[in-house]
Amino acid sequence: MLPPRALLAIGKPPVPESEDPLEEQPGEDPAARSDADRYFRAADLTARWLLPLAAGRLDAPINLLLGEPAMVHKLRARGLIEKGDVGAAMKEADLALAAVPADTQLPVELVPALDRHGHKAEADALFAKVMSVAEASAARHPHSALLHNSVAWMCAKCDRDLDKGLNHAEQATKLAPDAVGYLDTLAEVHFHRGERQAAIDSMKHCLELDPHFEYLQRQMKRLHHHRKPYNTPQTALISCASQPR
Question: I want to staple 60 with a disulfide (CB 3.0 to 4.6 A). Which of 64, 180, 195, 242 is the partner?
C-alpha cells in the first residue's frame, strides 16, 4: 500500500517520511493508531501539502481545484465512518460530491465501509446518488469506454446493481477489447455475481496481454481461492489505486 504522498504527485514538495500517516512515529505504539487516525492524518497531509499549490493560481490543473479538495473530504468521511460518526461522514461525502458529482471512486471507498459498520441505508443512498449521475454521464457519451468502466467498477466494488455493472463492463471491453484495466473490471463484476469461471476467463485474457503485471497475478489467485468478494478495511483510498480506472 502506497503512502498518502502518492496522492500529492503534481508539483508537490516531498512529504517527509516521518509524516507518512501509515508509518509509526518515533516512540509511538503502533497498536494505538486506529484506522480513523490514519484517514484523518492522510486528509490533513493532503490539505497541508497539496491544496495550497492551487491557491492564487489561475492555471491550476482541474484536479487541484476540484479533485484534491474532494479527496480531503473523502478521507475525512472514511475516518469518520471508522470512528462511528456516520452523520458527519455523510456530510463530508456530500461536500466531496459537490466538487465532483460523478466521482465513482467515492462510493467504492465509502459504501463497503458503511456496509461493514451496519449503515446499509446510508450506503444505499450514497451509491444511488452517484450511480444516477455516472449513468447519465455514460449515456451522454456512449462511446466512452472509460465512463462505462467507471460505472461497472463502482457496481462491482459496492456489490450493487450488478446487472447494470455487467452491461457497462461489457460495453467498455467492446469499445477497448485489449484494455487490461477494463478486462479486470469485467472479471470483478463476474466475481461479484458469483460467476467464478467467467471471472477467471476474463483474468486469463488480462494475463495474456500483460503476463508480468503482479496486480493481475494477485487477482487471479484471489479469484481461485476466495469464495466471496471482499473489501479490505484499509482500502486504496489512502494509497491511490494501483490500477487506474
Answer: 64
